[in-house]
Amino acid sequence: MSLVGAAGELLLRAVLNPLFLVLVLVVAWQYKRMQRLSEGLFALERNIYVRSTVISTLAGVAGGAVGALVLIALGIDLSRIGIVYLFLTALTLMLFHPRYLCFAYAGGIVSLFSLLSGAGDIDVPQLMALVGVLHMVEALLILLTGWLDPMPVYVRREGEAEVVGGFNLQKFWPIPLVAVMGVAQVSGPGVEVSPLARPEWWPLLHLGPGSADSLAYMLVPVLAILGYGEVATTAPPRRKVVSSAGHLALFSAVLVLLALGAALVPSLVWVPALFGPLGHELLIWVGLRQESRGEAIYRHPGHGVMVLDVLPGSLAARAGIRSQDVVLAVNGMGVRDRLDLYYALQAASTRLDIDILRAHDIIYASLERRPRQVLGIIPVPEPGTDRFIVLRDDTFITRAARALQRLLP
Q1: DSSP for 94-148?
Q2: CA 286, CA 284: separation in Å to the nearest integer?
Q3: Which of 21, 68, 77, 211 would you call most buried, defined as having the most Cβ atoms within 10 angstroms of its Cβ?
Q4: Tens-place pLDDT, residues 6-48
């Protein structure tokens, strides 16, 4: 309980640290950039990046508290994992592709280099356990907030000509953490070190002979940003994040268990080092495969206009119109496509009576509007749409499979 109390105090200090505000501003900038991308596709304004930033910050603080408890419970010592090498490797990988800015890849590379060269004095089980805990926190945050404020996009899946609708589920969370760090004991005039009483149940904190007298263990605050990115075309955002969070949680749990096993049986140390990057790459491949092989649900219905998204606070939102509804008629005028909808809205007076197909039922929405006030829906793309993003599978697994196909007769 003394550890929990000290961790709570440090967590509060981390949140009040000006550097944490810098991370929040970075997150706000990322959401603003995503919003501009969506606005460029639809020529509509969606000023929700401030709300997204606030929600992500509050969720990040809660996730950081959970992560701090797990890190302390496992006894992960930041001084023994080469944290500087970890960050430098992650930043270097980002230069090749933004999606490689992930501790699963960086942690695996640092661990394998240390095992092969014997340099760096890296405790691989502790490093990979840290990677597993961070992804565990990410899985929790994805489940809780990953589906909020999705950005609508038009997507052409690799190998297909049709453009379909979808949602960009990219999220960022500023995370304040608290972890254990071993420091050299310092004594002298005006110097005071208050080490932690080292619990015997710390499973990952293994001390070599004589090292107990040379190190003190302290709690230190750590600030980070976690990110998640996925495109949903085959399932609504909420259902998509449940699947993604479940897969990531399973990966995290297996990685932490492998790290604990390697701490108990040193000969197994290669297993978590390899599983971290390879297992994460498998996660990416599974997600992309689901999107490329699954049935797209936001596509032109053939008759009527399917709603991809509804602008917050718009007429459509107040009328209860929602994603996947199909507008069939406006004031009795049939709607076959987006152009028909435009002319029907132009011809309408201040009152709109809209016939909507929802699932297999016909429902009716009636609303009053000001002259020329927009309805506030984003329709799914129709044939001939020339603004879209391309969903490509660029994982190592797919590249290896393609290379093998070229080699085989």
Answers
A1: HHH-GGG--HHHHHHHHHHHHHHH--S---HHHHHHHHHHHHHHHHHHHHHHTTS
A2: 6
A3: 68
A4: 888 889 999 999 999 999 999 999 888 888 777 666 656 667 7
Q: Helices then strands (H, E): number in the chain?
A: 11, 12
Taking the C-alpha atoms of residue 215 and residue 203, their distance in angstroms, rounded to an integer, is 17
Which structural domains are found in the chain, ordered by start?
2-293 (no CATH), 305-379 (2.30.42.10)
Rounded to 10 degrees, the C-alpha dihedral 356/151/45/355 comes to 0
Which amino acid is present at 118? G
Q: How far is CA 37 from CA 40, 45, 361, 378, 389, in A?
A: 5, 11, 34, 14, 10
SS3 for 69?
Answer: helix
Residue 282 φ then ψ, to 5°: -65, -40
Where does residue 103 rank: exposed (0-12), middle (13-18), buried (19+ CB within 10 A)?
Answer: buried
Token representation of residue 153: 């996009």
Distance CA 409, CA 403 (A): 12
Cα within 13 Å of Cα(111), Cβ side: 27
The reported pLDDT for the residue numbered 203 is 62
> From the centroid of its chain, how far is CA 112?
26
Mean pLDDT of 362-370: 88
**Burial class of residue 364, CB neighbours in 10 A (0-12, 13-18, 19+):** exposed
**What is the rounded distance in angstroms from the CA atom of residue 40 to the CA atom of residue 405?**
39
Q: In this structure, are residues 225 and 138 in contact, taking their beta carbons and an 8 Å threshold?
A: no
3-state SS, residue 351: strand
Rounded Cα gap, residues 41 and 372, in angstroms:
22
Do 24 and 174 contact (CB within 8 A), yes or no?
yes
- Please name every residue paired with 167 in a beta bridge, in sequence order, or none if there are none: 152, 232
* Token pair 């007429």: residue: 315
From residue 131, alpha-carbon distances to 204, 254, 255, 336 in Å are 14, 11, 8, 51
Residues 113-118, mean pLDDT to the nearest whole number: 90
pLDDT tens for residues 188-230? 544 444 555 556 666 665 544 334 445 677 888 889 888 888 8
The first and second tokens of residue 122, run together, are: 């890296």
* Tokens at 49, concatenated: 């990046």
Chain Cα centroid distance, residue 309: 21
386 vs 164: CA distance, rounded Å? 11
